[in-house]
Every structure is written in C-alpha cells, then in structure tokens.
TrEMBL record:
Signal peptide (residue range): 1-22
Pfam families per record: TctC (PF03401)
Family that this chain belongs to: Belongs to the UPF0065 (bug) family.
The entry's keywords: Receptor, Signal
Origin superkingdom: Bacteria
Protein name, UniProt field: Tripartite-type tricarboxylate transporter, receptor component TctC
InterPro entries referenced in this protein's UniProt entry, alphabetically: BUG, Bug_dom1, TAT_signal
Coiled coil stretches, renumbered: none
Amino acid sequence: MTLPSPHPSRRLVLGAAGAALAAPWVATRAQPQPGIAGGRPITLVVSYPAGGGADLMARIIAPRLAEALGQSVVVDNKPGASGQIAGAQVARATPDGATLLLDASSFAVNPSLYPKMAYDSAKAFTPLAVLATFPNVLVCSAGFEARSVQDVIALARAKPGSVAYASSGNGSAQHLAGALFEERASVQLSHIPYRGGGPAMNDVMAGQVPLFFANVASALGHIRAGKMRALAVTSSLRARSLPDVPTMAEVGVRKYEVLEWNPVLAPAGLPADVQARLAAGIRQALADPEVLSRIRALGGDVFPGATPAAAAKFIQDQRTLWAGVVRERKISVG
C-alpha cells in the first residue's frame, strides 16, 4: 500500500526526480571512513521507478545517510511486481548492511495479495525504520452532487452500488482505501480499476467517475485549481497542506486511517550492532532540517519514533489491517 503535514500522510509521486534519475545514483561523504561492510558503498535498492514516491524519498535521505555513516550510499532502482523484484534481491543479499531495501506501503499488503511470493516478508528482513508517512485525500469531481462525505454515504446507502470510485488497479492503494471506507462507513460502492493513477484521476476530473482516494501531493494542484473537491483526508489528523479539509473521523467514519509510507529494511540475520548503527544513521538523516522541509513540502511528515522496534510494530500492524481487508472484501489482483 511507492511518493505530500505534520500529520500521518502518503507515498509520493512528484516528478522533479524525473527520468534523468533512472540510473544508479551515489551520495558520498567527502572523507568516507571504514565502517559498515568494511566501508564498501551501501546500496539502497528502491522498489519503484525513478521519479516515483519511493525513489524521491531515497534521493532525499541518501545524501544525509551517507554523511551520517561516513560512506557512500548508492540508490539503485529495481521496479516491478509491486516491489517484489527489489524485495527478492535484498532478501537474498548477504546480511552485512551493504544492501538495504527502500520500499512503499505495498510491502505490508503484498503477502495478502500474492500468496506465492519468493520470500516471506515477515521473516526475510530486518526492519530499520519507517521514514515518513503520507495521507490520501478522498476527492470528487467538481460537478458531483455530494458536497461532503456524509452526502456520499447517504447516496450510497440510498442506492447501493450506484456511487463509483476509481483506482489505479485491483489491489492498489486506492482500491484498498475504498474497500476500507466501504467497511467502516457500512456502504457499498462500485470499484472502477484503471491501469495507473494518472488515467484514474483524469477521468475523475472529467466527471466520468465521481470519487478517487488520491495522493495528497499529486492531487493538491488540481484541488486548488477547482478541478476536484477534497472531501476528507485519510490521516488521523488534518493535513498541513489541506488545513480546511476534515479527517474521516471528523465526518463520522471511525477507525479509518490509510497512510502511504516508506520503510527501510535489511536482510534477515543482520548483526545487532550493524542494525543499531544503520538505524542511528537514518535517525540522524531524518533530523536534518532540509530533509524534514522537503518531506513536509510533499505533504508528509517524518515517522514518529524512527527506531527498528517502532518500525517492526508499525509494519506488523499494517500487515494485519490489510490482511483483514483483503480477506473480508475478497480482493484479488486477478
């Protein structure tokens, strides 16, 4: 569930990174010192393409992580199979700290959607940190008759299945956000899957489909331009970039929180001292004012408590949440 407030928020897709960043990229401290894995460059394997949210987070954090550790950090994009290609590469790597995985929220969803993965995500990795969280925002077409989430619920209850929402595909973050909304709001919507978030959002703006659980970063400009209306954010607190938009809890949809987030993980079997040093380096990088500013500019915020224990608990909680939603709503990627 790859790129967006001082509040929990979403994975990002802002294209400043662009195609020019597709090649492996290196952040280096001026005077690297021998350290993790004998001081060799650390490869940060990113599970999504250049220009996407996970990639952007990698390029924000890598220079500061290199400074904190005193050695080079190489960003290497290995997209495909909803993050599983990168995940398999890191799961097979030697657990010496030289190879790390930077993934997206799909990491916690994949085990429920893909029963025959090449690795057991609960056992194949050592969590180091969750970098940041980004909320979604429920948006509607500018001409849609509903003016609030309560209106959407009333319409859906009056004629079950008559209100549709778009997503970037079966099993996508938007699909799961909609499925959880149906469960928490006790409504039945109609899911319209697209091949990608861009086409889905375009049809919402054109009025072809009324609803979309959008990435705050990618939707913000369209909301401000009046091409879509924001009904509620999916975080537990209001988003800094949309201060006038209520949370789902504020509009009466309880126990509803959907976040996009980016974990950093190492292969299982990583020595405790290496785990501690990597985690400390990540914390130092996240504390940098420029890193914080860039994350907030994307509508997100640094994950509170950037420790391996906090990351492990959060990932397990997310895995449990989405396993239940996938099971109860009978969601599949087929």
